[in-house]
Amino acid sequence: MGDNLFDAIDEKIHAKARLGIMSLLTVQGECDFGTLKQELQLTEGNLGNHIRVLENAGYIQVTKTFTGKRPKTLCSATELGIQAFRDYIEQLERIIRMTQLPKS
Amino acid sequence: MGDNLFDAIDEKIHAKARLGIMSLLTVQGECDFGTLKQELQLTEGNLGNHIRVLENAGYIQVTKTFTGKRPKTLCSATELGIQAFRDYIEQLERIIRMTQLPKS
């Protein structure tokens, strides 16, 4: 087993809520704050904190717009974020494969 | 997407170090403290804390033995732990499949 199989897991994505955000943004392209909040059943403050971590990492982009007069916060994954998410998923797949080896 | 796809991730296993411990115990059957420490590159205190979380969850069993006069701490996954780990891996696989759907 490689020494860094688990160490190489990207903590910025690994937290449950951030894994949820990155998964949704990867599948849906972009999401507004309200949709993320509802889909992931997070409080506003909690979601805001996780979004900030991902934004600071350069993994997502946050844009403030309006729908009519209602403000809307749109999130989308950046190229860096999409690549980091792909790497993260590959890392999980490596771990899953490792755990499915027969006992030696 | 199911509402609870991410919520259903078992936090007791999800933390990087504990995922490492459970993976190693699943693959190798049982491990002593020193091997876990070395393989996962954790400090003694850190490894001890994670082992306690897993032991309190009923996921692993910790046995103190001796090799000659040297004390040895052996860890092995319980049936509950093996099942919880299997469920955890299935949950990851569900998430991975979800992220690989084409955009709708």
Top CATH class of chain A = Mainly Alpha
Question: What is the C-alpha radius of gyration of chain A, as a whole number of Å?
Answer: 16 Å
Q: Please, how many domains of chain A?
A: 1
Strand order of the largest sheet of chain A: 1-3-2
Name the assembly state.
homodimer
Give the chain pair forming the largest contact, with residue counts.
A-B, 33 and 33 residues
Strand tally of chain A, please? 3
Q: What is the CATH architecture assignment of chain A?
A: Orthogonal Bundle
Organism (chains A, B): Cohnella nanjingensis
Pfam family, one (chains A, B): HTH_34
InterPro entries (chains A, B): WH-like_DNA-bd_sf, WH_DNA-bd_dom, WH_DNA-bd_sf
Domain Winged helix DNA-binding (chains A, B): 18-96
Brief summary of the model shown:
Helix content of chain A is 57%, strand content 18%.
Topology:
The structure is a homodimer of 104-residue chains.
Chain A lengths: L10 H4 L1 H13 L1 E3 H8 L3 H13 L3 E8 L2 E8 L1 H21 L5
Describe this structure in words.
The structure is a homodimer of 104-residue chains. Chain A has helices at residues 11-14, 16-28, 33-40, 44-56, 79-99, and strands at residues 30-32, 60-67, 70-77. Chain A has a single domain, classed as Winged helix-like DNA-binding domain superfamily/Winged helix DNA-binding domain (Arc Repressor Mutant, subunit A, Orthogonal Bundle). In chain A, strand 2 (60-67) and strand 3 form a beta hairpin. The first copy, chain A, contains five helices and three strands; from the N terminus they run H-H-E-H-H-E-E-H. Chain A is an alpha+beta fold and 104 residues long. In chain A, 31% of the residues are buried. In chain A, strands 1-3-2 form a three-stranded antiparallel sheet. Chain A starts with 10 loop residues before the first helix and ends in a 5-residue tail after the last helix. In chain A, 57% of the residues lie in helices and 18% in strands. The A-B interface holds A 1, 3-7, 9, 11, 14, 16-17, 19-20, 23-24, 26-29, 39-41, 85, 89, 92-93, 95-96, 98-99, 101, 103-104 and B 1, 3-7, 9, 11, 14, 16-17, 19-20, 23-24, 26-29, 39-41, 85, 89, 92-93, 95-96, 98-99, 101, 103-104. Chains A, B: Residues 18-96 form the Winged helix DNA-binding domain. Chains A, B: InterPro entries: WH-like_DNA-bd_sf, WH_DNA-bd_dom, WH_DNA-bd_sf. Chains A, B: It holds the Pfam family HTH_34.
